[in-house]
Amino acid sequence: MKSRATAVTMTATVSAAALVLAGCTGSDEPTDGGGGDGGGGGGPITFWLQEDLPDRVAATQEIVDAFVEESGVEVEVVSVAEDQFAQLITSAAAAGDLPDVIGGISLPQVRTLSANELVDTEAVGAVMESLDPATFSEQAIELTSDGDTHLAVPSESWTQMLFYRTDLFEAAGLEEPSSYDAILEAAQTLDSPEVAGFVGATAPGDAFTEQTFEHIALGNGCELVDEGGEVQLDSDACVAAFEFYGDLVTNYSVPGAQDVDTTRATYFAGDAAMFIWSSFALDELAGLREDAKPSCPECVDDPGFLAANTGVVTAIEGPDSSAPAQFGEITSWTITQGAATESAQAFIEYMMNDGYEPWIAIAPEGKVPVRTGTPEEPSVFSDAWSTLPAGVDTKAPLSDFYAPEVLETVAAGPEDLARWGIAQGQGDLLGALQGELPVAQAVSQVAQGDDPATAAQDAAEAVRSIADSIQ
To answer: Which of 53, 102, 374, 447 has the highest CB neighbour number within 10 Å of its CB?
Structure first.
């Protein structure tokens, strides 16, 4: 997984891949690439790891080395930085030299690779059958499939969550902030000159702002498009979501445009009762990262104070919704057309069995397993997750800092995970939006006091224009 700063903005990079890759193949014929034997059999494979942090690449190499020793299959690991992936995959596809396996790819990226017929869906499907789909989160399978066709093997997720001060909530007699009404009531009750009721992203041109609002919007049944692909951002449900979020950030937050760093800093300083961030905040809240440690007054004597007094809400429900939902990302494995399929399949099966626990252990705070276990031990991976050492400068299990119910909520998050556009077959549009970030701009408008209906209309028109441009 990526570093915290990039984790919450990874969709922006993925979208660049989507825009470029959409035109990378010059014909309808599949490539003959692959780092193996030209397709269909065993032999050496090339594995692209979408990660370039040295410690994580080194940890991955250790897992790969164990597979090589066990299987005898040679694996070349190629570390690919997020900002280089688009260019490299485009060049590889054009040259007919695709990697055999790609790991760490996001949901929009899976859809883009599939749209360009670069995925060997038969090979991917065989891996899923071998692993048993019943051992995976149903939602993860749905988001990585096209109907009954598996496009990727879902591995792990990070999710957007609402973090809240349980001590302040208990003192005020407030219920868990899992609905629009409960969040607004808490923000109104707890807002004071000393502590903001809520802090959330509002910066224009920032993918984190779009991710934060998508989290809020999904909870109210606000969708980017409908089943027919028609843009829905100006629907009643979406206007209500803009109005709700605008109320929070204009009346109960801190002044100025807020981004991924300022929202975290405000909550960590004890200056906000609630904030929205990704699961990557879990180890930081526990004081396990030196450059992002809690700084609240109580944290001076007790670095774990905020972790002990923070609850999390994954899925949020609005008044127009039929069910709670949340924003998140699932990273997956896939096999490309022309790959050495037998070796590629064996490699992914290893990474999702013997190699799975050490893989999620690389960054457990942002690698929540979506394969909970094996047919024989249905919860072995989810049980192990909460015990794995997390952190950067200091390592310790998250269970040392958080109550069991908090970690159970985080582990269950992928079940409610949703994303705009993907279920409606518009994954490419989701990626294309990241070039202009029209939703982030609309959120910024509302945060500055503009009419929510006008902001929603502006965003909808911008999305329609982008959709027309990629037809």
So the answer is: 102
